[in-house]
C-alpha cells in the first residue's frame, strides 16, 4: 500500500473519530498487545494471524524455556534449591535482539507457546522468531493513533549537536529524522542521497520491499491462500507451499481490500441497527440483573425453609436427649441414696444398730425379722452391683448420611424435563440434513421441537426455523449449498419445555448433490468386479483370474485396472457426489472422465494402465510433467491402503509425505462444468483436498477404477425412506 493511500485511509478513520462514529476507546482496544496490554511495539504476525509485540514473543519463549529447565533441574536433583524468576532478564532479551544472533545457551529452545490472543498453541518452526513477518501496517496505525489521539510528542533531530532541534522530516532510506539544516547537510543537492524518500517526522521506518523470512534474498510476490500468508516464488517452487494454491500479491491485495472495504461499509451502514441491538442488549442486561436478584431471593427463601426445618428438628432432638438424661440421673440419684444408707450411722445400718440394743426378746424378734430381710437385700446388692441406668446415648445419635447426600446433590430445578442431546455421529448432511438426538428420559417427553438456521455473517442474524417432531430424528430439506447451518432441539412434556440442546454446526455440500448408480453395461468386467443389487456398491475380487494374468508380467504385461462408471453423464452446471472407500482396499482410483476418454480406455485397457500413460499415476515420467498444467479430459486421484494421494506436479516437493494424506471416511467430488474444474473433498469437514482444471467439452461421467481387493460405496441420499431404514436398524 502506498503512503498516500495509507494517509487517506487513516484520515477517513480520524474523520469517523471526529464525527463520533468510532470512539477512541474502541480504536485503542484494537491496537493493544494481548500479552503486555499496551500499545503494540514492533508487532509480529503469528501463524494464527494474531499480532504480538516483538519483545513479548521473546519473553514468552524465554519464560517457557526457563520453566522447562527448572522442571528438568528439579527432577534431576530435588534437593538443590533454585530461584525461579517471574520474567526473563533484560540482559537475555537484549542479547538475542541484536542482529545476527545465533542459537546458544541464552537463546530460547522452545518454539511452541500459547497465543495470548486465541490461546491456541502456535509453533514457530525451526527459524523461530526470524520466520515471522513484522506487521508494518499495524505499526504505522499505532504511531499515527498516538499522534492523533494523544498529545503528540515532538520528534527531535538525530544528527543535531546538543541541544537537538525539533525534526521537520524523516528519511525512509537513512532511517533517521532531521531538522531543516541537518537535512540539507546530509542530503546535498545533486547527490544520490538527494533522491532518498522522505516523509514527515516519524519513528516508524519500514522497509520499501517486504522480504521473505525463509529466503532472505527473495522479495514477497505471492499469497498462499491455504496458509493465509505472503510467500516468495522459492516457497512455491520447492518449499512448504509447493502444493498449496497461491495467487499474485496484486490479486490478493485487491481481493482482500475489496472484502475489507465492503465489510467496513456494511458495518457503517448498519449503524442504526447496531444501536437498536445495543439498546436491546441493555434491556436484556437489566432484565438479567432483575431476574438474577429474583432467583437469589427465591434461593434464600428455600434455604431459610430448610433452616427452619433443621432448627425444629434440632430442638426436638435436643429435648428428647435432655429428657432421657434427666430420667437416668434420677435413677442414679435414688440408687446412690440407697447405698449411702448402708454406711455407718446412716440410714439402714444405723437403724439396725439401734435394733440390736433391744433386750426384750419378743420385741427384738418382732422388729428384727423385717429388718433382716432388708439387710439381706442390701447385702445381695453389694455382691451383685448393677447401675440403675445406662450412661451411653448410642440410641440418640442423629443419622444424617442420607440427608447429607441429598443436600450435596441439591441443584437447580430444570422444569422437570431433561435436556436432549444431539447425536453428532448419526447426524449428517448430504442432499438433505439428517439430525438425530437421544433423550435420557425418552418416555417423559411428549414431543420435540427441532430448530435450525443458516449462519451468515454478511446478513442480519437470521431467525430460527422450528419443526415439531414426535420421534428422535428428522430429515430437513431445501438447505442452501455451501452454507453453515446450526441445529438445536428441545423437549416438551405438555406445556413444560426443556432448555435447548447444545448447537451442532454442519456445512452443506458446495453444490447440489448429483445422484447416479454404477453402470453395469458400459465396460463392466463381471469377472473381477461384483455389483450389489442396488448398484450403489462395487467390490473388486482378486481371485484366480488375476493370478493367471500375473504370469504375463514377465513379458511386459501390466495388471489392468478394472473401470466402472456412473450411469448418468453431466454436460453443464455444478454437481457434487460422495463415496466411501473400504479401509481394506489396495488401490482405487476415483474422479471424472469424458465420454471420448472412456471409449479409449474401454477399447484398449492394457495400454491405459501403463505407468507412463496415466497423468497422475505417481511415477516420474516425462509425459506426466509436460501435460500436468494442460487441461485434461479426465482426472483421477489414487486412494488405497488407508491413504489419499495428491497427484504430483512438477513444482511440488519430491518428498512423498507432502502428497500423502490420511484417507477420509467419506470423499466428495465437485465437478464445475462451467468453470472447467474438478475438486476432491473431505466430506466430514467439507474441506477441499485437491483441485485442478479438466476439459468438460464432452459429457463427463463419474469414473472409478479398482485393482486388487477393494470396495467403493456410493453415499446414499438422505430421504424419509432412508430415515425409516436407519430407525429400523
TrEMBL record:
InterPro entries from the UniProt entry? B30.2/SPRY, B30.2/SPRY_sf, Bbox_C, ConA-like_dom_sf, COS_domain, E3_ligase_FN3/SPRY, FN3_dom, FN3_sf
Instruction: Give residue ranges for domain B box-type.
Output: 207-249
Q: Name one Pfam family in it.
A: zf-RING_UBOX
Task: Using the record's annotation, list all stretches that form the COS domain.
Answer: 356-413
- Write out the coiled-coil annotation as residue ranges: none
Q: Which residues form the B30.2/SPRY domain?
A: 496-723
Locate the Fibronectin type-III domain: which residues? Answer: 419-511
Record keywords: Coiled coil, Cytoplasm, Cytoskeleton, Metal-binding, Microtubule, Repeat, Transferase, Ubl conjugation pathway, Zinc, Zinc-finger
Query: What family is this protein classified in?
Result: Belongs to the TRIM/RBCC family.
Record-given protein name: E3 ubiquitin-protein ligase TRIM36 isoform X3
What organism is this sequence from? Odocoileus virginianus
